[in-house]
Amino acid sequence: MSKKPIKHITILIYAHPELYPPTLSAIEELSQIADTIDVVTRNMLASNWEYPKNVRVNYINKKKYVGFGIEKVSFGLKIIHFLKFVMMSHRLIKKNKSKIVLAYDAIPLYVAHLLKATLKKQDSLLWYHNHDVTDLSKANYFSIMSIASRKQDSAIQNIGMFSLPSKERLVYFKNIPKEINPIIIPNYPHKKVYSKHIKKEIKTTSRLKLVYQGSIGKGHGLESIIKILNQTINNKSLELHLVGKIRAPYLQQLNALAKQNGVLDHFEYHGMKPFTQLPAFLSGFDVGIAIHKPYNITYATGGSASNKIYEYAAVGLPVLLFDNEHYRFYLGDNNWSFFTDLTHDSLIKTLESIDINWHNASKAAQQDFIEKYNFETCFKKPKHTLDQKL
User: Are 319 and 309 in contact (CB under 8 A)?
Assistant: First the structure.
């Protein structure tokens, strides 16, 4: 950004920003071109992130709702949280005369829509970034998320800038103003965060340790992988490790399946880890699992939107992917991408190939991260667009 710094930016995100690593990267990049930034969010976990000194994180609720706790809040309290979010957003935008208001996903966009008179009076640029497309068929009709998503088409008329992590998702945004050119910002890791965890020494062990990180549920091939944990891969034993948010009944199902297959000692759940610990944690494994069966909008369009794919690569892990046209298109040319259809034979052959080619794949993954799959590189375009609009 070549012009004088932006005086103030307000960022609205209804989920905690540390649950969305690309948001942390965006905050870091924007902090370099703004005098001050206020983030309005909900208190959903113990914060471990060291934000830039000119960034203030403002929580609308004092009590933390970790894990799935936020879902158990009464409907009345959810309404109170939403109203507090609206009021705090309004106060900070007006008080600081925010030059940019960045709204993440449907609820913050709806809030900005409710505050459109204030934004217009201050000549604020409303920037909408969509992390995930809402599946309205699975949302409670009277929930805040459902209401905000149904209002998206009208709310999006007020934006001055629009971005999202995958071009395939543009089909779900029919009413973008004609003068807006959407910007694709892939969910790549931040070089500043991950480059310090690049493997300097590669050790060979008698185990092949697979890791899956993120929201843990069906559709990631975990059941199929558990069923082959009693196999050896080029005389190496297999292990499956999980880290992230998981519902208790599903974890019980996976434990029961591991016990049934006699591989309970090859399977481990590590709980949730703060993002500050994740890069070092991931670097202790051999293969990253980024399988997404195309069950929904998010899984079907994850080629550039699934941050876990590129976080694995950043620490030198070959990545195991679901074999379909979408993921082949985005990742098929990479030496560190390996594909499976999740059948027994496919999994075994793919893991054997990973093991044989591991050293070269690991080096290629880290090199690609440094040269092209990093957030600093992909954020140059939105910075340039801001430069033109302000």
Answer: yes
